[in-house]
Amino acid sequence: MQMGPDGSLEQVLKKIEELWDEEVAFLQDIGRYPSTLGNEGAVQEFIASYFENNLEIETDKFVPDIDKISMLDGFSHVEWSYQDRPVVVGRWRNQGPQIGKSLILQGHIDVVSPEPLSFWKYDPWGSTIVGNKMYGRGIQDMKSGIAAMVFALKAIKELGLNPGADILMKTVIEEECTGNGTLAAIDRGYVADGALIPEPFGLTALQAQVGVIWVRVKVKGAGAHVERADRAVNAIEKAYVLINALAEYRQHINSRLKPFNFTKHAHPLNVNVGVIKSGDWPSNVPAECTFEARIGFYPGTDYREIQNEVKDWLMAAAKNDQWLREVEPEISFYGFEAEGVSLDNNIDLFKVLEQAHQQTTGTDLKYISTTCTTDIRHYNLYYGIPATCYGPVGGNMHGADEWVDLDSVKKVTQTYAAFILKWCGVNRS
């Protein structure tokens, strides 16, 4: 018997309450895997087993084919291997007539490094609960969202309800850098009529995000023992000529006219030098210095234009330095070649999310524009699949003692369940 969303929601919300301790335990389990870049395999094995044996849905685990996806729009170039780093996809198939729209629920399993560990009060891999907060690296960003989407589906399934259209559950790698995990899953045929990603934006819907590139700059000096420093050229000091140039570039791009979605941001475009490598001995003048930076840019701009602009800016600064004018820096790009996204909040996906949010929170849905990037870009820009982010509340993302508010995780679970009932429709099994 077909059940309308209003008739089913009360049952589903009750089931979510019954499953809450299990959901918290699941989040603790996946939070204890140190799934930094290159180390995602173990937690993906755990999740694939959970999909197959606990949720009892079709499960596919596969390693991205870089040669294949490198030909696609949205691909970002990498310098590392994908061996033993699978993407996991579970499919809950519609068993009756299709009465709704198909849906992707997706989270990224990769997390950033917790270093320096000395800054942490709590074990970054401990999934420690204090009061209503859970602490750990990746607990907020975004393993809590994965728990929410998994248990929204689990609650519906345990009630014997069938979706009125297929639901795909994805856990991907490399959201924190390339986005190639998402691209590989799409290329493998895992597409739908819409997608939700529970990134932790505090129970708000994502309407716009910036694009991001990574740049690497290698500067050569003339090394020597410190006793001959007056006859040497310190590569670190010369690198700072270009680092200072990037600080000026940051001021320049933020002084430009802002697109509508970013007018409320005082400083929407961030330029961050995140890595510096140089030297191996305090008494030596370093002969080489390499630094890497992350650069944001507005939606509607080709990332290649920004790469060219950044390179031209740095080379202009080099020409003003006597040494760098003769020994030019090497400038390359890798890791992130991600274009920005700006969405119309009148699309059906947002309308259904507004209804689901209202049902579970009793408040109107708010929208945000973020100065970071997410995997929604692949769906919206290249495959015509409307996608947004909606996830829990937390703090210290990418910092020490990252945490998530557990009440908000439950609320996201409820909202995703309400969304599924409305977007996909449900049937009694």
Automatic annotation (TrEMBL):
Name the coenzymes or cofactors required.
Answer: Zn(2+); Co(2+)
Q: Give all residue intervals belonging to the Peptidase M20 dimerisation domain.
A: 209-321
Q: EC top class, in one word?
A: hydrolase
Which keywords describe this protein according to UniProt? Cobalt, Hydrolase, Metal-binding, Zinc
Instruction: Spell out the InterPro entries in the cross-references.
Output: ArgE/DapE, Bact_exopeptidase_dim_dom, Peptidase_M20, Peptidase_M20_dimer, Peptidase_M20A, YodQ-like
Q: Does the keyword Ligase apply?
A: no
Q: What is its EC number?
A: 3.4.-.-
**Which GO terms of the molecular function aspect are on file?**
hydrolase activity; metal ion binding
| Pfam families registered for this protein in UniProt | M20_dimer, Peptidase_M20
Q: What NCBIfam families does its record include?
A: DapE-ArgE, PRK06837.1
Q: Which PANTHER family match?
A: ACETYLORNITHINE DEACETYLASE (PTHR43808), PEPTIDASE M20 DIMERISATION DOMAIN-CONTAINING PROTEIN (PTHR43808:SF25)
State the family named in the UniProt similarity comment for this chain. Belongs to the peptidase M20A family.
Report the protein name in the record.
Answer: ArgE/DapE family deacylase
Q: Which organism is it from?
A: Metallumcola ferriviriculae
